[in-house]
Structures are given as structure tokens and as C-alpha cells.
Amino acid sequence: MKEKQNTIIDLRHIVKRFYVGQPNELEILHGIDLQVKKGEFVSIVGASGSGKTTLMNIIGVLDRPTEGEYTLDSVDVAGAKDKELSGIRNRKIGFVFQTYNLISRTTALRNVELPMMYAGVGKKERQERAKYYLQMVGMSERMTHRPDELSGGQKQRVSIARAMTNDPSIILADEPTGALDSVTGRKIMDIFHKLHEEQGKTIVLITHSNELAEETGRIITLKDGCIIGERKGSGALC
Amino acid sequence: MLIGENIMLALNGLLANKMRAILTMLGIIIGISSVIAIMSVGNSISSSVTSSMEDMGVNNITLGVSQKSTSETATADGRVFMGFSRGSTMDDGDYITDEMLDAMKEEFVDSVSEVLLSESAGSGTAEDGSLTANVTLTGVNAAYLENEDLTLISGRTLTETDQANAKRVVLVSDKLADSLFDGNYDVAVGSEVQVYVSNRYYSYAIVGVYEYEDSSFTTESDNDVYTSLYMPLETARNQNHSTVGYSQLTIVTASGVDSASLCTELENWFNNSYYRNNDSFEISASSMESMVSSMTDMLSTVSIAISVIAGISLLVGGIGVMNIMLVSITERTREIGTRKALGATNGSIRLQFITESIVICLLGGFIGIVLGLILAAVATNALGYAAKLSVGGIVFSVTFSILIGVFFGYYPANKAAKMNPIEALRYE
């Protein structure tokens, strides 16, 4: 029972098919079972075409599974309506993308405020919280800058701050260092470790780099739409 | 999400693409400014026409002899014309006589307060050596002169004696005195003035100078303007050798009398008493009130027609807005995907883009209103009317701008709202 309460991500026999009912019907995920506990730092690795991104989209509630059950932080996601999914993405998930996906017309501060705006947080609190998280990722001096005035590493730090603002249940990072050089990528990984260790955040890292995956607590290997291996990494707490 | 946030977002987006925003707004600006300009100019014209007609007296009734429109008339060679009898001219018996007027005054003693009589003696040139001034010669009775409400600058007005004895005395305008007597009104009074009209010279003694009031209808330059030269009614009639009666006259109704119904009563009375056996002519009466309303009707029909054309340009502008919104949404596909990943609902994405489209249209609308008012001010100034703001036009424009924004923004905004977040995030 205690274990059940501690489980944040609970995927049961997830199948994802595209072009359902058409001659070119394609099954990408063939029944994934995956449980992630609260406070875990998990990495999902696999070559391209292994179904990583599809799995991430399902975990991130951007897409629905064709079959199977998905419970996120004790909310049944599979049966939720579009509007409820928006709310789940807004409050329970913090996205960090490979290409940052910051809105280029506005400042770092306004970018960080964005999820709180959709959550209906008041203007004053929004600014305070945005400043707090920007400071946490070491970006407080550049918060009035627009994304095109920031380096790749700085952009990624802003997007981590953005992922944190609504205090989500999980942080879902899709190749967060993929577009960065190794030194900058290292710094970004350090931020994730800091969030995990100091704030106890649950982090799911999707990567094709075994080296980065090794740092995390648990490594899940995906191949051709199936989980083919699961082992502990060096970052495992126990 | 708050509307205010969306408006800020929209303004930000527009500032990022200034040139595009201005070009998009241009259609709306042109449409709105022409609607405003046309409505304001129309308003100015109709209100100054109305007011100058009211100056002439809304309660005045014009009574005239007119041809019967559905009479059968035999012409000299015996042919019979059906319908409008073009061939007949007025004989002595067709005119309104003094006896008829006396009888009418008795009959309508409560509703008719004055009968204004005038006789045109043509228009020509008043001359003094090489100096000239254009004049219209009008013989008037005392009531007519009083109704004109002239401001006398020098001398006296026409008296009972002048009228009774058909004296060759006249009132002239200050403009005439300026031209012929170098503005010396005291010299003008008592002088003789020569008027060349209908190939003849007539000579009159000036007894008074009145102040000429610019009528809104005249657009000629100062020098060419024809000012009235008033003389006693009988003087003019003698000059014209007309002794039989009047073809047209004006009746001032007593206060509180409905001029429209009096028109009908007067027509019936005259036609039953005097024109029953007249094959070609009858009396028709019309009040200034009905003329004013038909004039305003006509003007508003014209402005509505032109506004419809301007409305079409608004429609084209709206299509431009839709086009640009579609482009903008395609460009911002990744942004839309990001927003959805961060928790934006379909509704908030839709609202964001509809707000953007409304902001474009409203901004265009406001610029259009300002431009339209400037255009209207310039146009009314050039035409010589007092500028009058069309509040209805402004309300219409603002409402229409918002409607265009919603109508032409809905389709693109809905397209954005329905985007699949995964595909939107993957969009290059």
C-alpha cells in the first residue's frame, strides 16, 4: 500500500499504435510496464526509432496510449478529457526540451511566468516565484534578456526554471543536453542532480547517451518499442 | 488567463512585426476612415441644410399654381393629351388673385398669420460708372420683408407709403454699397442706382442698406455673389406689367398649427372654391417641413449607399486580417506547441489569437476613425459646411472592427487551438 502511494508514474501495458484501422497501421510501443517512485531520477535510453519519444509523449500527457492504463500522481490519465490533460500538464509536469522552446518575443522572466499564467497565479506572485527559480538556476542577472540574447546553456537553464515554477510532480527532460557542448551539458546535468538531491524532485531523463544515463538512479533501456533492460546507475540512492 | 495578458501578448506580437501589422491594418484603416468621413460629411451637409431651411421657416407653406397631372387637355389643333398636359400656359384666370387671398385669410383666420408675397423682377447688374455689382430684383410686400428678418445698417426700410404708391425705392445689401459706394453707407442712402436688367436700364432711389448674410447654399466667390435688391411689390409688378395675380406665394402659419395638415386643407379649399372648373391648373401646397425631411432622407440614402461600398472595403480588410493570422499561426506553430505543453487549454490558445485579431482590427479602427475625422474636417471645410462629428459612425466603426476581428480571427484561432501539441512541437 505504501509502495502504491509512493508511485508517481504508473504505466500498465501501454500500447501505442498510429494510423489505427488503416493499411499502414503501425505499432510503436508493444505493452510497456513502468513504475517510477517519488523522488527517483530515472533515465530512459534507446537508439532512435526505439519509441523513446512516443513514450515520453505519453508520460508527458501530450498523447494518449491506444491501450493500457496510465496513472500519474494518482490521477487516471487515460480517461481524462483534453481540458483535464492541459491542467495535468500545467500542474504535474515540467517539460525541459532539447530545443528549449522558449518564446522568443519575450524576456526570460516572462517565459518562466508562462506556466503560472495558465495556472491562474496572480501577477505579483508569478513574478516573485519566477525570480526565485531563475535565481536557483543562476540566471537572476539575465532575466530581462530575450532568448535570442542568451547562450544555449543559459536558455536551457531558463527552461528548467520554467519547468519548476508550478512545483510539478515530475520533471520530464527530453535530451536536455543534446544541443549543448559537453562543458555546458555538464552544468545542466549538475542542475538536475541538484534539483533531485536538494529538492527531492522526480526526474525522468530521456537520452541516447549512455554516459549521462549512468549518472541517474535507474536506467531503462528501450528497443523496438519494448523495455529490454533495467539496471541501477551510479546515482542510485540505495 | 486574463484578457489583459492576452492584449499585452497581442501588442507584443504586433510590435515584433511592425510593417506586417501596419499593412494588415491598412485595409481596416481605409474602410473605417472612409465610413467615418462619409458619415460625418453627410451629417454636416444634412444638418446645415436642415438648419438653413429652418431659418427660412419650417412652418412656412409654399402655395403655388401647378399643372394638373392627370387632366385631359385639348390642344389648339384638337388633339387630346392624356396625362401630363405639357402644352398649356397660364392664362389670366389661372393666377391666384388678391380676392382669393382675402377670402382665404377670412376662411383660415385662425391658422394663417401672414401671407408673404413677392414678385421677381429678374437679375442683372447694378452699375455706377465702371463699378458693378450683381443683383436679384425682388418686389416684396411688408410681411415678406419682415419675415426676411434683415438687419438694417443705414437708412430706413420700405414703408406703407412706398408700398401703396409703388415708389421706385429699394433696399440694397452692404455688399452692393461696398462695391458701388466704397463702403460709405450714408452716401449710398439717398443716391440713385442704375440697374441693367433684361436689356433695359432702371433707376431706383436707395432708401436703406441691409447686412448681407452669407447663405450656406452659395459657393461663388465674394465678387460674383448676387445680393437681393428689395423694392415694393407693386413697383415690381408694374415693371413686369403683371396685374392679374400670383403664381406662387408663402403662407406663415400661426404658432401651434400643424403645417402638414394645413397644406391639405388649403389645397382642398382653393381647388374646390376656385379651380374646380380649371382643366389645366390646380393649387398645390407644400410645407418646408416636408421638404426638409425629404432632403434629409435623400442625403441619408446617399450616405448609406456610399457606406455600403466602404463596408465592402472593410470586408476585404477583414480577409487580409484572416490571411495574416493564418500566416502568423503557421509561423508560431512551435510556440503554440510549447504553450500547450506548458498547460494552455485549447480555449486559451483560441482566445489568444482571437484577441490578437481583435487588437489588429481595433487599432486599425482607431487609426481609421482619427484619419476619417481629419478627412471629414478637411472635406467639410472645403465644401464650406460646419464640421459635425458622426457619433453613430464612430460607434458603428468600433463595433464593426470588433466584429471583423472576431469573425475573421475565429477560423485561424480555432485552427491554432486544435493543433496537435506533439506535431506542433516537432514543427520546423
From TrEMBL, chain B:
Pfam families: FtsX (PF02687), MacB_PCD (PF12704). Its main location: membrane. GO terms for molecular function: transmembrane transporter activity. It is a multi-pass membrane protein. InterPro entries: ABC3_permease_C, MacB_PCD, Macrolide_Exporter_MacB. GO terms for cellular component: plasma membrane. It comes from the Bacteria. Residues 308-421 form the ABC3 transporter permease C-terminal domain. Belongs to the ABC-4 integral membrane protein family. This is ABC transporter permease.
